[in-house]
């Protein structure tokens, strides 16, 4: 997926919602994430210019917080828990089924930008193992043969 060039006005509309102080950085980055499904490099540069904070500091925030991504993410996020209970009950097979069906490797985004597939260490729902989250909705006792039905039902396609 290639980075899309955006009009600076898109970033300015978000930045203008907040006081132009360093304390607003995280909230602005979270809004960038919600709007664009990642934090674009252009947004970081624009934020640096407007607020007067070095871009390196903003990049550091972007890499520190798990909720922020510096690479484009899909419209929908699928997380497969690979904790011990989920691993033992079939998480690797669920991951393989999703990789095959979506034609994307784990921790990647599909070419059309619809889905990001992630592995997570534990979601704290071991009694429901194996667990798959689609857009942060938990689906327990998922099976490789049914996982795409779960995804399609969740996203409405």
- Reading the helices and strands in chain order gives HHHHEHHEEEEH
Number of strands: 5
Average pLDDT rating? 93
Helical coverage, percent range: 40-55%
User: What is the spatial order of strands in the main beta sheet?
Assistant: 2-3-1-4-5
Q: Alpha-carbon distance between the termini?
A: 22 Å
Please count the helical segments: 7
Rg estimate, integer Å:
18 Å
Strand content: 5-15%
What structural class is derived from the secondary structure elements?
A: alpha+beta
How would you sum up the global shape? elongated
What's the short story on this structure?
This protein has 157 residues and is an alpha+beta fold.
Give a structural overview.
The chain has 157 residues and is α+β, with helices and mostly antiparallel strands. Helix content is 43%, strand content 13%. It contains 7 helices and 5 strands; from the N terminus they run ααααβααββββα. It has helices at 8-15, 25-36, 41-51, 55-64, 84-88, 91-102, 147-155; strands at 76-81, 108-109, 115-120, 132-134, 137-139. The longest helix has 12 residues, at 25-36. It is elongated.
């Amino acid at each position: 997926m290639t980075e899309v060039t955006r009009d600076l006005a898109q970033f300015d509309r978000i930045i203008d919602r907040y006081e132009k102080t360093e304390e607003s950085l995280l909230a602005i980055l979270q809004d960038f994430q919600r709007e664009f499904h990642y934090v674009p490099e252009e947004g970081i540069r624009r934020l640096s210019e407007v607020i007067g904070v070095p871009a390196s500091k903003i990049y550091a925030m972007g890499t520190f917080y798990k909720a922020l991504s510096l690479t484009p993410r899909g419209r929908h996020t699928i997380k497969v828990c690979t904790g011990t209970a989920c691993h033992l009950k079939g998480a690797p097979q669920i991951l393989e089924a999703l990789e095959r069906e979506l034609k994307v490797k784990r921790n990647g985004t599909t070419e059309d930008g619809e889905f990001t597939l992630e592995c997570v260490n534990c979601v704290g729902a071991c009694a429901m193992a194996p667990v798959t989250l689609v857009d942060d909705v938990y689906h327990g006792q998922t099976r490789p043969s049914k996982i795409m039905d779960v995804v399609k039902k969740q996203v409405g396609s």
